[in-house]
Design goal:
Blueprint: E1 8-15, E2 18-23, E3 27-32, E4 46-52, E5 55-60, H1 62-65, E6 78-83, E7 93-98, E8 103-107, E9 112-116, E10 126-132, E11 138-140, H2 142-154
């Protein structure tokens, strides 16, 4: 395998006081923030839904899934639209609030090291925290997040 084949284009997604790192292929688009329509009785991490490409897109505060407050909306707030890979979401996509534009990075095994596998609530959709040069981003469990959204949609 060549060196280029061992690299993965990824995005560093800015949160309040943290970042997520995700494969670029998981992201469909980054869109301007529009106020989500809330759903009564939903968990605090579910901000609501927005219209996107003719779909009702559920939008999540990742900070909320970690048991933190949903951050205030600023002029930098965006929605990162993720592809739903498990087939559990009818829309096929979901959004995560972000505090700015994601940064494109190339990662390989030389720059990425496991840092921690705990430090967040058990129910949080996080696989681990990694060290990437001078960054310590979280790797989200996108399948778990989809399951949480699917359960929310059915009222479980």
């Amino acid at each position: 395998m060549t060196e280029a084949e061992q690299e993965l284009y990824s995005l560093l997604v800015p949160l309040v006081g943290d970042r997520l790192i995700v494969p670029r292929a998981c992201v469909a688009e980054v869109v301007r923030f529009s106020r989500p329509e809330g759903r009564e009785g939903s968990h605090g991490w579910l901000s609501g839904t927005i219209g996107w490409n003719g779909r009702e897109l559920p939008v999540v505060s990742f900070e909320g899934t970690l048991g933190k407050e949903t951050p205030a909306v600023t002029g930098r707030t965006r929605v990162v639209v993720f592809l739903a890979s498990t087939g559990q979401l009818k829309t096929g996509y979901f959004g995560v609030l972000t505090q700015g534009f994601p940064q494109l990075v190339r990662v390989n095994r030389d720059v990425l090291r496991l840092e921690a596998t705990d430090g967040w609530p058990d129910e949080a959709p996080v696989l681990c925290r990694v060290k990437m040069i001078n960054e310590f981003p979280l790797i989200p469990d996108l399948e778990k997040l989809e399951l949480m959204l699917a359960r929310e949609a059915t009222g479980d």
